[in-house]
Write a structure and sequence with these properties.
heterodimer; A: mainly alpha; MetI-like fold; 2 domains; 13 helices; flat; B: D-Maltodextrin-Binding Protein, domain 2; three-stranded antiparallel sheet
């Protein structure tokens, strides 16, 4: 949404909205009957034993929950927009993490395993992803230039590549590389097989991103360079790409975040990355939930770090553009 | 940018270089490298798992270590998925699998089974609250099991165990193909059964030691009926190396005779599973 100077009355402070909001939540909570949950126990002083409180208990729980939820958004409505966003984010995070309470997790177990999980798994996840994204970047650059080159052979190869590789599920590609390649006589290890599959898959997607980025440079730039006597290579290198790369970098960051999680697929061929560790460590004592949730948190933290990094990158490139103009 | 490309190219060469092709006899390779590479699962207690100190542990692990010791080499464990292991064509990625594998006819086409080292009773588990009393009542019910396992084959009535000394069995429980729920591993099946009686599954067919381990960890399950069948479990190697086959067969025979396997079985299963007991 674009910023403008039109000031609307705040939606969350309009009585009609508040009424409807409260009503919807009240009905929802009433229908789902949260009497047996932690909220029922919390309100036990008012409604007595939640199990025997019946409709009255249900009503009270739904009313109180609905009331606090409405009060919450009403209060948040007074904050400036940036703060609102932050508070809502934190509140949702608390609800999410608080939700783990119901799994009855053993913190001791998590503590005993988390260091091993991070030292073995996190490192592998990161280096597999980083190497793959670097190769994918190179593949995509070559693919995009080939698609735009006007050379029939190069275009044919690039079009075939993006068409086929975007059609194959990553897991299938991984099996093809790991199990199929040795039949041609070259035995590939698990980690290189994973890197190769991720590179080919993401290279295909990124080829399209790069092509879009390069095509977004106005044709005038191209024509000007050609009229100055530049051939295809120098035009690309010196005129088009320096302008296209700032456009290409942000979506590449997005791809990297996505790859970080897709790299978990290499666990099926026995690479000890985060997901493999999660599936393995809790098995003996049947505490998989602990490990899965821990790894979910690790992925989340990792993604938050990358998000911050990506935002900086975007900002960096946008200022470069402004100063140029 | 130039530096980046240079770095990336070097990384590619390094990454691919480590997976060099290998051809020749497996035994020579093991002896030359002084290393036995064993494919195993890291999540199959009490056969093979990571213990509290995050080290390899379990019955299969102990047997592997003993084999390596008698070969006079070190041992390293790798962890490909089960279906990759059973598919054969290992290309020298690993030398052996001491993974409680049943030597079925289909598997014998792609793998070599030098020797049976113990037997596992396979049985059905139901939820604690279930009303079933005998496995015969499980006919036509939703049964969870591991994909590409002998348990799945049993449910499909496709199981043929052609190993020497395997006790005969009958297909007592039949269920329609639609109601067989195949999971990636038996723990996921047990997880679905624990949710509640008949919620997602009515029963699970798995190794009785695995079921017992789950019950010990607080899963609300119970064993039902007598074991469906006894699985002979064998060491597996890739096709094409008779020397390694005879070497392993000799070592396993020795371990049967001197009581090593019995001792390990009692250590991990509390009973002697190295002989068929009906």
């Amino acid at each position: 949404m674009y910023k403008d100077t039109v000031i609307d009355k705040k939606l969350v402070h309009q009585p009609k909205f508040i009424g409807v909001f409260f009503g919807v939540w009240f009905v929802t909570f009433f229908v789902f009957d949260l009497g047996g949950s932690i909220f029922g126990q919390f309100l036990a002083p008012v409604i007595g034993d939640p199990a025997t409180s019946g409709l009255y208990g249900r009503f009270v729980v739904a009313f109180v929950l609905g009331f606090f939820l409405t009060l919450n958004i009403f209060a948040i409505g007074f904050l400036p927009t940036q703060r609102q966003s932050l508070v809502v984010w934190i509140e949702l995070a608390i609800c999410f993490v608080g939700g783990f309470h119901i799994f009855n997790l053993s913190l001791e177990f998590i503590q005993s395993k988390i260091w091993f999980l991070i030292s073995r798994g996190l490192f592998t996840t990161i280096y597999v992803s980083v190497i793959s994204i670097i190769f994918a970047f190179i593949v995509a650059m070559i693919g995009a230039i080939a698609k735009l080159s006007g050379n029939g052979f190069a275009m044919g190869i690039a079009n075939f590549y993006t068409s086929l590789l975007r059609a194959l599920p990553l897991l299938l590609l991984l099996f093809l590389v790991y199990l199929g390649l040795p039949q041609t006589g070259y035995v590939i290890d698990a980690v290189p097989a994973g890197i190769l599959a991720l590179t080919l898959n993401y290279g295909a997607y990124m080829t399209e991103v790069f092509r879009g980025g390069i095509e977004s440079i106005p044709p005038g730039q191209w024509e000007a360079a050609r009229s100055l006597g530049f051939t295809f290579g120098p035009t690309m290198r010196r005129v088009i790409l320096p302008q296209a790369i700032p456009i290409i970098i942000p979506p590449t960051g997005n791809m990297f975040i996505s790859m970080l999680k897709d790299s978990s697929l290499v666990s099926v061929i026995g690479v000890w990355e985060l997901m493999f560790m999660a599936r393995t460590l809790g098995q003996k004592t049947f505490q998989h939930m602990e490990m899965l949730i821990t790894v979910a948190m690790v992925y989340w933290v990792l993604t938050i770090v990358l998000e911050i990094f990506q935002r900086r990158l975007e900002k960096h490139y946008s200022t470069v553009k402004e100063t140029k103009e | 940018m130039k530096r980046l490309i240079k770095f990336a190219t070097m990384a590619l060469i390094l990454a691919l270089g480590t997976g060099s092709a290998w051809s020749g006899e497996a035994l020579d390779r093991v002896m030359k490298n002084k290393l036995l590479k064993s494919a195993t699962s890291a999540s199959w207690a009490p056969q093979s798992f990571m213990n509290d100190k995050n080290e390899w542990d379990g019955f299969d692990i102990d047997v592997t270590k003993e084999i390596a010791k008698r070969l006079g080499v070190k041992v390293e464990f790798v962890t490909p998925a089960w279906d990759i292991m059973t598919a054969g064509n290992w290309y020298g990625r690993w030398d052996i699998s001491v993974g409680s594998m049943t030597p079925t006819k289909a598997r014998a086409k792609v793998l070599t089974f030098p020797a049976v080292y113990y037997y596992t009773p396979a049985g059905f588990a139901v939820h604690k609250d279930s009303s079933y009393k005998d496995k015969a009542e499980l006919n036509g019910k939703r049964i969870g099991t591991t994909a590409a396992s002998t348990y799945e084959l049993y449910l499909k009535k496709d199981l043929v165990i052609d190993a020497v000394g395997a006790p005969a069995f009958k297909f007592d429980v039949t269920t329609t193909a639609k109601k067989i729920r195949s999971y990636k591993d038996s723990n996921t099946a047990l997880d679905d059964l624990r949710i509640g009686d008949g919620k997602r599954l009515d029963a699970v067919l798995s190794a009785i030691p695995t079921i017992n381990a789950a019950i010990k960890s607080g899963y609300p399950l119970r064993n039902i009926g007598t074991p469906a069948f006894y699985e002979p479990l064998s060491v597996a190697i890739d096709k094409g190396d008779k020397e390694l086959q005879y070497m392993i067969a000799g070592i396993i025979k020795e371990m049967h005779e001197d009581g090593t396997l019995t001792a390990l079985s009692i250590k991990w299963y509390k009973t002697d599973n190295t002989k068929t007991t009906n």
